[in-house]
Design a protein that fits this description.
Blueprint (H helix, E strand, L loop, with lengths): L1 E4 L7 H14 L6 E6 L3 H16 L3 E2 L8 E6 L4 H12 L2 H6 L4 E6 L5 H10 L5 E3 L7 H11 L1 E5 L20 E5 L1 E2 L10 H5 L3 E2 L2 H13 L4 E5 L16 H9 L6 E5 L8 H8 L7 E3 L7 H7 L5 H14 L4 E8 L6 H14 L3 E6 L17 H26 L3 E10 L4 E6 L4 E4 L9 E10 L2 E6 L6
Parallel strand pairs: 1-7, 2-3, 2-4, 4-5, 5-6, 6-7, 8-11, 11-12, 13-14, 14-15, 18-20
Antiparallel strand pairs: 9-10, 16-17, 16-19, 17-18, 19-20
Helix pairs in contact: 1-6, 9-10, 10-12, 13-14
Length: 472
């Protein structure tokens, strides 16, 4: 195949219909099948739902078996080296499939594709990948795909950030009761370890009326747990100026009638305000759960990370949040082994974990990202030593989690029932604090809120029993 660089703008019904007709003839079975695999964060999941919405309009059904697919698409993540290695390994495994079934189309999209060295590696080492595009090109996916299949060219579409936020893209939601709702895209923070601003672009907020309209539609469709997404949701509304900040947007959404729960992520401590915490405390539907990444408990490391807050500021936020919401559940992200970090500085992170007592943590060993400032910093601590620190931190958090879970025994929690676990004969769901609870019950309860009395705590999962409704 020849190769071309492609820049497209917009989507249209004609292109969708032409692709529908094309794939009627290219299919291997009764209908064309797409295999879509998503790596990384919830924003990537939301992006994949839009891509699947477009594929659905093109006449595709979906499969979990890549061997059966007419189109294979990986939506990639660039946040850590391990995630990139998994992508390259899985793409490499498709070589034999492409040899057996040359008509299969292989596409890669997402944050990894916005990195020049990754795109060059795909061009040179994976010639059977036909379509590569970044997050800004998602609205153009049908046109990119059309070029690929009609001109028999490899299409690489990267960049293209316009500052505009696409609205009205089709969507195929994967969940029945839980939904992702993007309220903003991009990031202006440029933390020294993070590649996101380089691959996702600068901050762009959606119009609040567009968010409100989509939110109402989700509530009317019966979704019970709706998570608002953004690389830094606390920055919502800063530009362009809609006259609505994130706390005000939450109040608008909270006024929508219905039986549902609102979550949001990810919050940046430097932009977390008392107004936001007061809004959570005074709401009807907003979960008392705050994911507030602190990354490090040491002030020097926080400054090197370019985080724009210090330990005292973070602890002040936690103290105020607990004052206005005594039942709040706090979760966070932590990086172990940032370049130049000493063991004594690492211990400041451990002590912060013990002081705050988080419900759970997402913990990572520092992964250098090419193009970030931290990637060029001296990093003398060996990987083996960082792994020992990591295990020490995990052990400290496990002790905290065990205490917090044990304290929940005997309480009654409002749980959204998410699914049945047939092998265990149990239902499973989550509390407002985002803690998993397993309990016996009728599978017909899935998608409803139920009150569950906690009877036991094991690791990070609670077990319990249904509390009969009053009058039963």
């Amino acid at each position: 195949m020849s190769e071309s660089l492609f820049s497209a703008a917009g989507t249209d019904r004609q292109t969708i219909e032409q692709l529908r007709q094309i794939f009627k003839t290219r299919k291997r079975g009764e209908v064309p099948l797409a295999f879509v695999h998503t790596y990384g964060c919830q924003q990537n999941v939301a992006d994949s739902e839009h891509i699947q919405g477009m594929l659905l309009q093109m006449g595709f059904a979906f499969t979990q078996d890549a061997e059966q697919a007419d189109l294979i698409l990986f939506n990639t993540c660039a946040i850590r080296e391990h995630a990139e290695d998994r992508v390259f390994g899985n793409v490499g495994a498709l070589k034999n499939l492409k040899r057996r079934c040359p008509e299969v189309l292989i596409a890669l999209c997402g944050c990894m594709m916005e990195q020049e060295h990754v795109a060059e590696r795909i061009k040179k080492s994976y010639p059977y990948v036909s379509l590569v595009f970044g997050p800004h090109q998602i609205p153009n996916f049908p046109k990119l795909l059309f070029t690929c299949v009609t001109q028999h060219e490899r299409v690489f579409a990267r960049g293209g950030e316009t500052g505009e936020v696409p609205e009205g893209l089709p969507i195929r939601r994967e969940g029945r009761f839980k939904a992702w709702l993007s309220v903003m895209y991009g990031c202006d923070n440029f933390c020294s370890y993070c590649i996101v601003p380089y691959v996702r672009g600068r901050e762009r907020s959606r119009n609040p009326q567009a968010v409100l309209s989509e939110f109402r539609g989700l509530v009317e469709a019966g979704y019970k747990d709706i998570t608002l997404l953004g690389q830094n949701v606390n920055s919502y509304g800063k530009k362009p100026d809609y006259g609505v900040n994130f706390a005000q947007l939450l109040r608008m959404l909270d006024e929508v009638p219905g039986d549902y729960r609102i979550r949001f992520m990810t919050s940046h401590p430097k932009d977390c305000t008392r107004e936001l915490l007061d809004t959570m405390a005074g709401s009807t539907h907003i979960a008392h759960h705050l994911h507030l990444p602190f990354q490090s408990g040491n002030d020097r490391i926080l400054k090197e990370m370019n985080r724009h807050y210090d330990r005292a500021k973070y602890l002040e936020l936690v103290s105020y949040a607990r004052r206005v919401m005594p039942d709040i559940s706090l979760t966070s992200d932590v990086i172990v082994g940032f370049p130049g970090e000493t063991y004594e500085e690492f211990l400041d992170t451990v002590s912060l974990i013990q002081e705050v007592e988080f419900t759970s943590l997402f913990t990572f060993i520092y992964s250098p990202r090419r193009g970030t400032r931290a990637a060029s910093m001296p990093d003398p601590v060996p990987a083996k030593e960082k792994s020992r620190w990591f295990q020490e931190l995990c052990k400290a958090q496990e002790a905290v989690a065990a205490r917090r879970c044990a304290a929940a025994v005997g309480t009654v929690q409002r749980v959204l029932v998410e699914e049945e676990i047939p092998k265990k004969g149990l239902l499973t769901g989550r509390t407002g604090g985002n803690v998993v609870v397993d309990f016996p019950g009728d599978p017909a309860l899935c998608g409803t809120f139920q009150h569950v009395r906690i009877t036991n705590a094991r690791n990070w999962i609670l077990t319990g029993e249904l509390v009969p409704p009053a009058g039963d």
